[in-house]
Amino acid sequence: MGGQTLVVGVMGLGSLGEGIVRALLGSGPDVQVVGVDHDPGVVHRVRNRLESRDLSLGTELTGLKKADLVIESVSEDLGVKENVLRRLRSACSPGTVLATVSGTLPVAQLAIASGCPERVLGMRFFLPPPYGRSVELVRTSMTSPDAVGLAQRVADRAGSDVVSVGGGPGEAATELVYGYLNHAVAMVEQNCATVEDMDTAARVGCGLPYGPLELLDLIGLDTVRDTLRTLHCRTGNRSLFPALLLDRMVEKGRLGRKSGRGFHLYTDDGRVVPDEDPRRETGPLRGVDRIGVVGSGTMARGIAEVVARAGLEVTLVARDRDRASAAFAAVDASLAAAEGRGRISEGERIGVLGRVEATDDCAALSACDLVIEAVAEELRVKRAVMGRIDGVAKPGATLATITSSLSVAEIASATSRPSQVIGLHFLHPVPATGLVEVVRTGATSDGVRDTARALVRRLGRSAVECTDRAGFIVNALLFPYLNDAIRMLVRTDVTVEEIDRAVTTAFGHPTGPFALLDAIGLDVSLAILRRLNEAAPDAGPVPAAPLEQLVAAGYLGRKTGSGFRIAESRAAATA
């Protein structure tokens, strides 16, 4: 094994290949790394980024001759990988172990095509190091124990956590996540939101470690495009057909971090160049001293609390005195709980509560500079309430709706001032979430948009701006992915637990799709999917049949004590 020195080769220096090289560098004086890529430009960029005496780079396979193990990291194409593995067998020493990083192609087929199946295994890095730490070693019935042991040693030296996800669940997780990434590209192509706002919505609104466009750049747009093509050919799933924008960007050489430009722009050493779009900047919140909130439910109370905690006066208007009193008491209880947890002092609690006025008199809204309706998610109800607000709000006041699925323009048309109406979609639960979707219609003025963004920033939240379309950003990104996960149960033999574990283990999601569905509520999820489908019957997600059936049977998720996981367990018990 090359004396005391472990020599590791990496064939293909794209995002994943470079990440593997980077992880191995500095792992000790007894590790030497050799990187090879057919593109001299790629070799030059990697050399500039990774200056190290322990690294040898070049364009010829002969540089890998003395390697103990070579990891191929070329495009996700069966013919390409088979050809590379055969060439590596010829170029390397007879004992060299060959590892493929493929996440969608059959390792056994690749091993046989190489001509040395006993020396071939899979090393499935789901994300490029150091952004992802998990690697799965995939052996075939022909892989020798020595080859597996060497791959384990290399993974350890790279600082990777060797996990066991399983072929089926791993492929299922890859299909789900890559489908989600593809959908994000399509949304950018449709001008639903900026790249930066899409990424912020996913990170802050969904709690994901990376935004979808950021993740695409890290993996490599060409790698994602090629993987999607493979998955689409295998499944026929239209959501896996690469978005046209993805194809165009790859053709132009905009491959992501590895080429210096993808959806984001990168410096020579791979850092993101900050967005300098002046339209993203808003000044301080001027001319807004009192906020009105119409409604007395959970959302209305949560908004009133965060507004008052931000130092603004708030008038909460309920339908009657009893509801107004109950809403005030609920805000008081929430603040008391925050005090009990040590998040605010007694003085702060008293000060915040002193900025909240709860009443059943709609005329009190005439003193407000910005009024937010937070009533039931029904178009008829929201239009009626917005009309009443319009009748009492002072000239120049901004009017906002918190709708999560209805047309902001339709709600605004119930007023005499549609240019002063905007959507402010606060995610639930309001006090605990850090994102607000700012939804502008074709009539909304620039000043109203700026006022809304400044308010969100004053509330300590991140504002993402999007067009007036069903699902806005978060729901439009999230629910097709959740729906695809449900459909996967019908056409594969992977289980709910396997998919959830694979997604969290391989891609670092905080929650698997089924655990998330149970937390949101299956009935709520079904309603959102129906709305997305109604808005785009030809392209929107058709709710998966198992979701319809579970909701009809009363399995609504965590709130009823039974959802996908419990339903599956009961089915297994009666089988």
Description:
- This protein has about 575 residues and is of the alpha/beta class.
- It is about 45% helix and about 15% strand.
- It is built from 22 helices and 16 strands.
- The strands form two sheets. It has an eight-stranded mixed sheet, with helices on both faces. An eight-stranded mixed sheet has the order 11-10-9-12-13-14-15-16, with helices on both faces.
- A hairpin with an 8-residue loop joins strand 14 and strand 15 (about 435-440).
- Helix 3 (about 80-90) crosses helix 4.
- It is elongated and about 85 Å long.
- The relative contact order is 0.08.
- Mean pLDDT is about 90; it is low at about 565-575.
Count the helices. How many? 22
User: What is the CA-atom radius of gyration, in angstroms?
Assistant: 27 Å
Distance between termini?
52 Å
Strands, total number: 16
Structural class: alpha/beta
Envelope shape: elongated
